[in-house]
Amino acid sequence: MKHRLAFLFLTLLAVPAVLAQSWPNRPIQVIVPWPSGGGTDNVSRLVIQKMALPQPIVIENKSGAGGNIGIEFASRAPADGYTFVVSTAGAAINQTLTKNLSFNVLKDFDPIVVLAVNQGVLVVNPAIPVTSVKEFIAYARANPGKLTYGSSGTGSAMHLWGELFKMKAGVDLLHVPYKGASPALTDLIGGQIDAVFSDIGPALPYIRDGKLRALGVGASARFQGLPDVPTISEAGVPGYLARSMTGLLAPAGTPKDVILGMNAAAIKALGDSDVRQRLSGMAAVPGGNTPEYFAKALRDEVEVWAAVISTAKIEKQ
Questions:
Q1: Whole-model pTM above 0.85?
Q2: What is the pLDDT of residue 59?
Q3: 119-217 sits in which CATH class?
Q4: Strand partners for 196
Q5: Parallel, antiparallel, or unpaired for β 83-87 and 243-251?
Q6: Rounded Cα–Cα distance for residues 205 and 201 (Å)
């Protein structure tokens, strides 16, 4: 009896290894928890469709609830290497912002790789008499509570980027939520609001046309498309980081060989010159790193945004 139990135990341990060796033997599903044709969908499809695997990858959009619907669906999928999900900054934010989530993004998923990084940029209406981050901070301090900044909605990445700036720079700005980034940028150009912490992509054409003034980018390094614009950190707010990582997650317990196989396929796709050029055209910085790197980055983001949400007393509307 003891021998039979021992054999059964060893057999169960061997199942993931056997599974991984035969993987993939049928199509793979990747859930994009955002609408088709949006920024996250475009970046994800560009990279994922270039991933060379023995079986096709089927991308399915399951949007809604700030990305929670698609991620929840993936959290319930078998950890067999045939279902994956794309995550963005919303996944890290919603872990604290959304009450009574049925999943935990840190516990219920195994990170695979960062596909791309979208950086934030602080843009102002040119009528505002500031040309640098330091001048913006000084102007805000001289006009406490009077300067407004728009976002794509309460609890969005754009909103939290602004709240993080307020905390680190010690300024009082008035948040104006919109139903999307586009109307916020439109009102900024029209002078109805003073500033926006935007993804670089949507703001870039207006910056180049002189309709908006870029003061600083929210990354750890300058954006190649705006080489003369410093990072907000180097321009006067040390440690400030505003970014959105588009990454690939697997249900927790997915065989390690499968994780490494998807990681290798993604990194190879990200090395393709056409992929890199098209990502650059979307103002996205190509990713490509280890599962361990992505795991730490995701943990750090959950921690940072939890602190911002708590300090700013942000509640989902």
A1: yes
A2: 97
A3: alpha beta
A4: 123, 150
A5: antiparallel
A6: 8
